[in-house]
Amino acid sequence: MGIVSAYRMRLRRKLWLTRARLKAGQLSPVANRTGAIRGGDLLAFTTLRDERLRLPYFLDYYRRLGIDHFLMVDNGSTDGTTDYLAAQPDVSLWRTEHSYRGSAYGVDWLNGLARRHGARHWCLTVDVDEFLVYPFCDTRPLRALTDWLDASQLRVFGAMLLDMYPKGPLAAQPYAEGQDPFEIAQWFDAGNYVAEKNPLYDNLWIQGGVRAREFFADRPRRAPALNKTPLVKWARGYAYVSSTHALLPRGLNRTYEEAGGEKASGVLLHAKFLDTFGARAEEEAARGEHYRAAEEYRAYAGVLGDGLDEGRDLWCRWSERYVNWRQLEILGLISKGNWA
Amino acid sequence: MSLGVVLLVHTAFDRAAQVARHWADAGCGVVIHVDAKVPRAAFRAFRDRFAGEERVRFCKRVRVEWGTWSLVAATQIASARLLEAFPDATHVYLASGACLPLRPVAELESYLADRPGTDFIESVAVAEADWAIDGLEAERFTLRFPFSWRKRRKLFDAWTEAQRKLGLTRRLPDGLAPHLGSQWWCLTRETLQAILEAPDRRVMDAYFASVWIPDESYFQSLARRHSARIESRSLTLAKFDLQGKPHIFYDDHRPLLERSDCFVARKIWPGAEALYATFLDPDRPAARLAEPDPGKIDRVFSRANQRRANGRAGLLNQGRFPKKGREGKLTAAPYAVFCGLDALYPEWEPWLARRLGGRVHGHLFHPDGAEFAGREAVTQGCLSADPALRDYRPEQFLGNLIWNTRGERQAWQFGPADTQAVAPFLLRDRNATFTVVSGAWAVPLLQSERPFDEIRAEIARLQRVEAAFLRLLDGPEVAARVHRWTLAEFAAGPADRLDPVLAEIAGREEARPLPEIRDLSDIPALLQRLRDAGVKPTVMGDFGVAPSPAPRVGGPGLAG
């Protein structure tokens, strides 16, 4: 990396940090329990809107993994999300009515919170429909992983987004509060992912899966990015620059080995495709608050054709049914690296 | 017979206390060295837990930094204290706070008693050692290492390099034969005392103080001078990764640890509730007097190291994305590519599937989409036949296909009418076997009913594409196995050409006759007509000059 390029990256990073500081004023605390955070606690950061139905399972899942404190930004929910979260003893909640898009899809808000509360902690940044799966997650809590990453002098842990879907029409299996969404969305595409190194941030740009296969076959370059770096040993100068797809300084994006070996990595199981999805896609397409003016949601809602109607079945006979992390490791979707 | 234990502790005090008590309850004398980096208050709190316990003592604290003399110094201080505080101790076991006894202490004591006067310390002569991860074996002893490897890596490397360049070395003290081995040992009182009380200890200490990682060489070398009998192995099970960092044991390792029959394991994750509960249980039945057998655990951890170093060939994911040249094999398994044969044999695909087994596809890179076997729209791994998806990253499309079908041989057809972008990748791949009959694709075209002008233009176009492909076959980066004939060469004896190749790919001979070939008798004349119309057939090979006007049955090239 040349000096000029390094300096440009530094400016970019400063820009993101400044944005985070400016947008911090948009957040008003609803329940600030950050005083309870202890040194070494595992923290989770989330932005959400109208996710009341999903919250009980989400919180339960990550509490069981060992998250000690949740820092959440509620972007104008009207479905009871705010009250529900405010009542949770391990949640600190901020609320804002400002634009999600204007905050770089929540990145500015979470960068601000991480800057204030995340330094020297392992920070997990996930949406409420993203569930981290890592090697040995059925026998070793998240703390075992972060201790090992610390001992290995690693600051980040990569986890590809793995889109899960049900068999049959989405509307056929309604999701009930508290339910494991992967009882319904049990299936995934196992072997149709493609990747390229992004020369700007050095992160891997991964695409593919069911969304590329079903919604972006005619324009694969526009298919959603699936690479994510959700788990980071945070330091004050760090910043996410594009969802959790990339970070600065860009050394943090090197979650992959380039010399032929495998670094340990996981997936975020993505419980996007449930019965609630159809209505959500139409609403988000109309709101236009998502990435690229919610082009993705418009694709789903059928505005760009080839869309998602209630009867659409994403399943095919080669779909793989989710079993556990070992299955994902054999399929090559995650790696143990040298964690044994 | 009584065992003394030196415990080096710097963190996870609850676990260290639990283990110290376990040793002490079994009758061992324990001396704990707590790193001086631990704040005084925390140290006192820890020490006070053992107030009134005769069998647990503490020693003077040293600031310990990994890879430096301080670790040896701490061990010396604690050992000396142990020998003095527990005069009945016949052996001293060096362990850390993250070490866990796997077998009852009594079993260890009787094991030692059965082997009187034996020192258990891994101690390998430097000349024979293939030990270090850093490649510094002999140089650990002949260079000086004043800079911290962890904190001042660049300076460390630069100074090491400078000493090599300048030829700076230093002399070993008299009577010292450098040996390396695991830091964790069990020495007899006599040997340990001899090392600590040697008349030239000052000389030795001064020398080892600037050896690199002296905790793996000080006692290991000096035991050779003083011991009556060395068994060069550690009784502590410890595995290391590629960074030289110990592998860590978790609850899910319990069955492995139980079967290892090792006496002590390190390192244990402090959160491994079940391991501590199981192995420190005082009522744990004494098993048997088995020899320690770390073999199974060795395999698990060497596989992990292997995975980290080399990875799985043909795999790309968020943990593995090799640079060009560092991929190892480009794909996961061998596969076969046939160029032109489907144009010569109308029944080629089904016949080949019977001959080779595995899966035989049509043209995977057909412009209208991948022709998967059975002409599925989606195949294994949910890989789509859609041409836009495939051509977005054609190399990874292929890599995915081969990865998804590991265990089942893949074969497919390729020709100049297909999209060509993947060709250089295929040719760089050691897993690929190409069987090429150049110009064969032209046969159905020449024999078709289409207007001659169209045929001529199409052949001219495809011939240019194939010529470019053939030039790639001669390129410097070709790693694929290539069998290659022109149409004319092939037509002279199809079975002679093909049978050995198919036997090689399938791994077995088979007397299955080739399917019926197209009638090629009119090809020489048709090629002549092409030539007459101004298109020179270059890739089909030499059929000789067809006599005009009336084409003869069977050109000269077909006769032989």
Key traits:
heterodimer, A: 340 residues, alpha/beta, 2 domains, seven-stranded mixed β-sheet, five-stranded mixed β-sheet, 9 helices, B: 560 residues, Rossmann fold, 23 helices, 38% helix, 13% strand, elongated, disordered C terminus
Number of domain units of chain A: 2
Q: Percent of residues of chain B in beta strands?
A: 5-15%
SSE-based structural type of chain A = alpha/beta
Q: Count up the helices of chain A.
A: 9
Instruction: State the major sheet of chain B.
Output: 5 strands, mixed
Q: Strand arrangement, largest sheet of chain A?
A: 1-4-3-2-5-12-7
Largest protein interface?
A: A-B, 59 and 51 residues
Structural class of chain B: alpha/beta
Nearest-angstrom radius of gyration of chain A?
Answer: 19 Å
Fraction in beta strands of chain A: 15-25%
Multimeric organization: heterodimer
What characteristic shape of chain A results from the CA principal axes? globular
Order of helices and strands of chain A, N to C?
HEEHEHEHEEHEEEEEHEEEEHHEH
Explain the overall architecture:
Chain B: GO terms for molecular function: metal ion binding; protein xylosyltransferase activity. Chain B: Its main location: endoplasmic reticulum. Chain B: It holds the Pfam family Branch. The complex is a heterodimer of chains A (340) and B (560). By secondary structure, chain A is α/β, with parallel strands linked by helices. Chain A folds into two domains: 20-127, no CATH class; 129-340, no CATH class. Helices cover 28% and strands 20% of the residues of chain A. Chain A contains nine helices and 16 strands. In chain A, strands 1-4-3-2-5-12-7 form a seven-stranded mixed β-sheet, sandwiched between helices. A five-stranded mixed β-sheet of chain A has the order 6-15-8-9-16. Chain A has a two-stranded antiparallel ribbon with strand order 10-11. Chain A is globular. Chain A starts with a helix and ends in a 9-residue tail after the last helix. Chain B is of the alpha/beta class and 560 residues long. Chain B has a domain at 335-559: Rossmann fold (3-Layer(aba) Sandwich), CATH 3.40.50. Chain B is 38% helix and 13% strand. In chain B, helix 3 packs across helix 7 and helix 7 (189-196) crosses helix 9. The longest helix of chain B is centred in the last third of the chain and has 22 residues, at 452-473. Residues 549-560 of chain B have low confidence and may be disordered. The interface between A and B is large, with 59 and 51 residues.
